[in-house]
Design brief:
about 30% strand, alpha+beta, 4 helices, globular
């Protein structure tokens, strides 16, 4: 079974603020942008190894981490995930895999880690505009961007995954 580790900033994320200004400069009416870094592990670590790996992929002072649990802002309108296409070198994912291998002291032959980033958008946007925003932050030759969920403003229940 694949595991998904999601990392979100506890406080203001400068990357999200820069992204928000860029989106606004493109003419879209976005009020808030939040970013979540995602590591999908196609490995089979036990619970203890999984928790240890998650702690190595995050900073407990500035970030919150979720293991097989969505980490998202309480309110948003669209979630757009950008990740690499199959067969494309994913340097962040490769580094994360090496962390798992170093931690578990075993080579994960045929098993890997994929990285992606979810951009949560709040504002007066249509689904087509959310798709356009995702497309503008991805390179279609090596990446895919997809609107993962439309959200009506109700808080996400614990344990609900976006993928």
């Amino acid at each position: 079974m694949a595991h998904r580790i999601e990392v979100i900033a506890k406080k203001e994320d400068t990357r999200a603020e820069v992204r928000k200004r860029k989106i606004q400069s493109m003419g879209f009416k976005v009020d808030e942008v939040s970013l979540v870094d995602v590591y999908t592990l196609d490995t089979h670590p036990d619970s203890k190894e999984l928790i240890s790996t998650a702690s190595m992929l995050s900073n407990p002072v500035t970030q919150e981490v979720g293991i097989d649990q969505a980490k998202a802002p309480e309110r948003f309108d669209y979630a757009v995930e950008v990740g690499f296409l199959p067969g494309v070198t994913d340097n962040v994912g490769t580094t994360a895999r090496e962390i798992v291998e170093d931690k578990t002291k075993r080579t994960s032959e045929g098993q890997t880690v994929y990285s992606s980033q979810v951009m949560f958008l709040s504002g007066n946007l249509s689904r087509d505009e959310a798709v356009q925003i995702g497309d503008s932050f991805s390179n279609p030759i090596i990446q895919r961007a997809s609107v993962k969920i439309y959200f009506d403003g109700t808080p996400i229940p614990n344990g609900v995954r976006l993928a």
